[in-house]
Structure formats: structure tokens, C-alpha cells
Amino acid sequence: MIADTHEREGFVNETIWGPSRSNPSFEKNGSLLLDTYRSLVSQSSPDSPHKIIHVAHSSLSSESPLHPSRPGFAFQSFAAPENGELVIAKSVNSAFIGTNLEDVIREHFRNGKGVLYIAGLTTDHCVSTTTRMAGNLGVADARNENVELGEKGEVVLVQDATAAWKKSEDGFDAELVHKVHVESLKEFASIENTENVVKSWKSWLSELKK
Questions:
Q1: CA atoms of 77 and 192, how far apart (whole Å)
Q2: Residue 101, helix vs strand vs coil
Q3: Which of 27, 86, 114, 145 is within CB 3.0–4.6 Å of 109 for a Cys-Cys bond?
Q4: Which residues pair with 120 in a beta bridge?
Q5: With a cut of 70, which residues of the chain have pLDDT below it?
């Protein structure tokens, strides 16, 4: 299962979020992840462990570029959901607060432990908060009485498919902000790169085709 946290158009406005952003390859990597995983979903059975969830920020403030009435509420083109892909709206940093995301993931992995991949924006806000809660809640762990209860699933943060902003001209460099937060998330998730993740997914695709 892959979950993308809100790649809204409003997140590309540097006059709002900061003077510079880390990881210029974010969009390219995010697009590659989605394209590859969609191949897995399309070639799998309806009850397969492959599912895409888009978690979109929906601000409650009418002044926010992420308010539903604003142009910035639109998905970036590479991250636009396709037919059949679930979109869950949230209004705070964590994708698990005020939403049914935890129930959706637990139901999806009802037959055993699973793997949850997380990518999106931004590293130090929604991605960090959601990753921490996913690890603490054990959303990918086995809960079905027919399997070994407590068998650990895995939360995977795709570190080069997320990005952070420099907060001010005199603030910490955006790449440093990104790296520090990724490092701190090693307690809550496995850290991977897009290249390795895509390689593993393509090996799954090869198995499906046999």
C-alpha cells in the first residue's frame, strides 16, 4: 500500500512556505512511485495487498492557499488521483486525526501484516507527523485472529519522494531540515530511496506476470 500526503498546488508557492525547498527531484520521484505502483494495482486481484491512498490537506482557514475555495487546493498534475484511488481529506498535520485512514489501512491489512509506503509533502510537517503516528499505532501490524496477532508490519518512508522548506532567509538550509527530520524518523519507519523501492515493486510485477 502506498499513501501520498497532499501534493497540492498550494505547496509550490515559495512566497508562502519559504525561500527555498529541498530535493528538486521530489516531483520526478513521486511520479515514478505512482506510475510503478499503479502497474501493480492494475495487474493484481481485487483482494491484493496493493492500494493507493491520497491524503489531501483541506484547510479550515479561508485565507489558506490549501482551502477548498482556492486554486492551490488542486492536486499537482503528477499527483492527481486516478479513477478508483481513495482520497482522504484532513485538516491537521496528521493524516490519522479526524479521518478514517487508520480504519482503512487496518481493514486492508486484515489478513496479516502489511507494508505501508509514505511519500509527499512536507518532510517536517505532515509527512513526519503521519509517519510517527503510523509507527506508533502499528497500522500495518497483524490484527486478524486467524494470523499471529502482533506480527509486525512495516512503515516505509521514501525519503527522496518528500521535501522540506527553508523557513526564512536566516533559517536552517532546506536540505538540512529535510535530512534531520528523516534521520529522526528512523525510530518510527524504515527509510528507503525511490530507486530501491521501485526496484522491489518491479520484482513483484515480474512475479505477477509468471
A1: 24
A2: helix
A3: 114
A4: 5, 162
A5: 1-19, 210
Domains along the sequence of the chain with CATH: 2-209 (3.40.50.850)
pLDDT value at residue 144: 78
- Residue 131 has a pLDDT of 98
CA 131 to chain centre: 8
pLDDT (tens digit per residue) in 116-147: 999 999 999 999 999 999 999 999 999 877 77
Q: Counting runs of H as helices and runs of E as strands, what totals does the chain give?
A: 6, 6
Instruction: Print burial letters for 71-94: b (CB count within 10 Å at least 16), e (below 16).
Output: ebbebbebbeeeeeeeebebeebb
Report the pLDDT value the prediction gives residue 14, as an integer from 0 to 100: 54
Name the CA dihedral angle for 186, 189, 193, 195, rounded to a multiple of 10 degrees: 150
| Contact by Cβ (8 Å): 154, 39 | no
Looking at residue 97, its amino acid is I
Whether residue 88 contacts residue 101, with contact meaning beta carbons closer than 8 Å, is answered with yes
**151/137 Cα distance (integer angstroms):** 13
Q: Give the integer Cα–Cα distance in Å for 189 and 170.
A: 31
